Amino acid sequence: MTEPSSAGAIQDPAALCKGIIGRRFPSAQAVVQKDHVRAFCEAIGETNPLYLDSAFARSEGYRDILVPPTYLFVVKFSVMNPANVLHELGLEGSAGKLLHAEQSFEYLVPVCAGDRLDFEERVADAYDKRNGALLFVALETRVTNSLQEHVLSIRHTEVVRMDA
Amino acid sequence: MMEKFAHWQTGTVLPPLHLPPLTLDTLKTYAIASGDHAEAHVDPDVARAMGFPHAFAHGLLTMAWLGRLLTDQAPAPLLKSYSVRFTALVFVGEELTCSAVVSGREADAEQVRFELDLQVVNGEGEVKLAGKATVSVPL
Q1: Contact B67/A70, CB-based, under 8 Å?
Q2: Domain range spanning residue A156?
Q3: What is the tens place of the pLDDT at every residue in A16-66?
Q4: What is the number of structural domains in chain A?
């Protein structure tokens, strides 16, 4: 792994980026917990009964409550913190040096409370700007359920300030 | 199902979501719920020491607010994609408005697919987040 130069910026950002694209991380599992979905809804001011009321969700034809559109990022975060992932790549990811630039979700199958999910993450892209002062790392996570259905893809781009 | 979306045409503006001024308590609550305890989100002194004017919101929190608007209008299973760019930090005290506009409509034999343009702005009109979503309504 390339060591930071004395100025803080990396010496060969192109090589570093090339070296990490495609890197995969050990998969991680999590079960969607109703109480946690509820706490998340409270934190974002969400009151939609599809996320809060199991009886209502069942009356609408779902197995249990659904989850808000960004919720599974939080579940992923609990098993794959981006700062830790970047650290594993040899990139410093402490608070203030790491900024979230882009985020996207692709929804394929609805996820309900009780679902057991498997998260598989890889480095989808990496590039630098300003001669290595900023490193952009795109992480892509494929989420599958216990039926091996691909339920969701999560992609986010983190900016690591190498000169900070 | 489709009746609810009959009025969605290119240019249709969905009901915006106006949020109260952001408080530090809201950020602390989200930090606990999300597990993201990065100090710049919850400690104004730390944020200032890093050169920011105040503690700032988790990007995903802003995205979650806009998500409320989306799934108030279209139940979550109709939402097929949701992507954003975080264009500016959101600081404590700022008052945000989330908005969505129908930017495209395409029908086939089974579904109508809507594209939405999304934005979150503060009271001065500064864009904090810009994005797109796709909603698919079965026929």
Answers
A1: yes
A2: 13-33+67-161
A3: 899 999 999 999 999 999 999 999 999 999 999 999 999 999 999 999 999
A4: 1
